[in-house]
Design goal:
Elements lengths: L5 E7 L4 E6 L4 H5 L6 H4 L7 H12 L8 E4 L3 H14 L3 E3 L19 H10 L11 H18 L4 E6 L1 H11 L18 E6 L2
Parallel strand pairs: 1-6, 2-5, 3-4, 3-5
Antiparallel strand pairs: 2-6
Length: 201
């Protein structure tokens, strides 16, 4: 039976086992707004009360390998998510800017329905920067660089990466070898969900 917080697994050629974790439901989700700029996301908009409950339930019913390394985006919602994981498994947290939210430029602070305007443009061109957004292609590069760096320095670890919905969708699309303009073809990653990257060797 599939755990409600499981997003399945994809098989890739990696030396380490990765748990890609989307942060729990946040105050930005609750308010229905886009919070993508560091000046807003680092200091504010942490987990909502629902997000805190989600993390409590996730950790109490943990069904994945125990992580040995924990990296997280430095935004408040991902930091608080990582804090829950760190306390539970007695891990040291490592902040990683490469895991940050995708920057949505002029749409930052606007209603979250505006995501769809960007995604429609992504479907036409993953390199676009309309509304001064960070392109999907750029997100894929920085997210993959995080994994490449970990692969260069670790072997056989279970590494938890706490990030955001759009960056994780884009990373998974890239790892599956699919065109980045199709990143919204994947089922949306739920808050407090985990996607495993398993070794194909």
């Amino acid at each position: 039976m599939t755990h409600p917080s499981s997003q399945g697994a994809i098989t890739v050629n990696l030396k380490n086992h990765y748990l890609l974790i989307r942060h729990g439901h946040s105050q930005a989700n609750e308010a229905g707004i886009i919070v993508s700029a560091p000046r807003h996301g680092i200091a504010g908009y942490g987990l909502s009360s629902l997000g805190e409950r989600q993390m409590h339930e996730l950790l109490n019913d943990w069904q994945w390998p125990t992580p040995s390394i924990l990296l997280h985006s430095d935004y408040r919602r991902t930091t608080q998510t990582a804090e829950c994981i760190a306390r539970h498994f007695k891990l040291i947290m490592q902040s990683e800017k490469g895991l940050r939210e995708r920057f949505f430029g002029e749409l930052d602070g606007q209603p979250d329905r505006r995501y769809h305007d960007v995604w429609a443009l992504d479907a036409q061109d993953p390199d676009h920067c309309h509304f001064a957004v960070e392109s999907a292609a750029s997100v894929a590069i920085r997210m993959r660089e995080v994994i490449d760096t970990l692969e260069a320095h670790h072997d056989g670890e279970t590494i938890a990466l706490v990030s955001h919905g759009d960056p994780l969708q884009i990373l998974l699309t890239a790892l599956e070898g699919k065109p980045l303009n199709r990143h919204r073809d994947r089922p949306s990653l739920a808050p407090a969900s985990i996607t495993e990257l398993t070794d194909q060797r």
